[in-house]
Amino acid sequence: MTHQDHEKNRTAWNEMVEIHFRHPDYKVKEFLQGASTLKSIELTELGEVKGKSLLHLMCQFGLDTLSWARLGAQVTGVDISDKSIAYAKMLAEQTGLEADFIRADILDLKGRIDNKFDIVYQSYGTLCWLSDLDKWAEVVAYYLRPGGVLHLIDFHPIAVPWEEKDVSYFKKGPYRYTNNVDYCDKDYIIKNELVEWQHKLSDIINAVIDAGLTVIHLNEFDKSCSPKERDWYEKDGYYYPPSGPPRYPLMFSLKAQKRNK
Ligand SMILES: C[S@@+](CC[C@H](N)C(=O)[O-])C[C@H]1O[C@@H](n2cnc3c(N)ncnc32)[C@H](O)[C@@H]1O
What we know:
Elements lengths: L3 H19 L5 H5 L7 H7 L6 E5 L5 H8 L3 E6 L2 H14 L3 E5 L13 E7 L9 H11 E12 L3 H5 L11 E3 L16 E3 L4 H10 L2 E9 L11 E3 L2 E3 L10 E8 L3
Parallel strand pairs: 1-2, 1-4, 2-3, 4-5
Antiparallel strand pairs: 5-11, 6-7, 8-11, 9-10
The structure holds S-adenosylmethionine.
């Protein structure tokens, strides 16, 4: 069933993707020259992917999806944005990498793909776009084969309520934003409305457990995948505040395995 607020985000992401695809932070040029866009957390925590099937949820234009393919995974990427999927297919063709890309709201994904996967992967800025975590976890569990693993890395749920005084850790939303500045191009004002949700850490973990997965680990990080302020410094693809560790966790990762029964 079409979710009206997700459809609003589809329109907004179609607008933003045009900015991101051309923005140097996304490193499309480097990717086309053979570089990987994957970072050390997912590479270390997921380990060997060669020969494994991998479903990348909310993949934007597929740079990470195709980077997993370069490591030998059989990949499928899904995103709600039409333009993202069009660019992802173009990148697959340009690089000759094998990949399936599907345009869909991930909450409506059941029935769109026949396979079950060894890995479901989702990264860096995705949970806030989902109105229903129980439905999300159900989709994750549905597409994992028994014994398969979910790897999720995202902004820590405390980060936005800590930084934005209008957001409560305990209030799911929806939170509606207009005239937002794009997170890559700080001179670009997004014309379309964005709708976000705030999910507690316990809600994320409980949704995964209730869907039939066992948590393998939960990690919290003092670094971010994007700089919060201009003076943050970069090391190994992550950003750190100059004055020492932040007062709150910036990102978390969750690895969980689908139970056999
Ligand atoms: C911050 S980006 C994720 C970045 C990603 N890690 C990457 O590899 O570029 C968030 C993505 O989620 C997608 N998205 C938002 N809501 C969605 C939904 N309901 N279903 C599927 N994709 C969605 C957006 O189109 C966007 O590409």
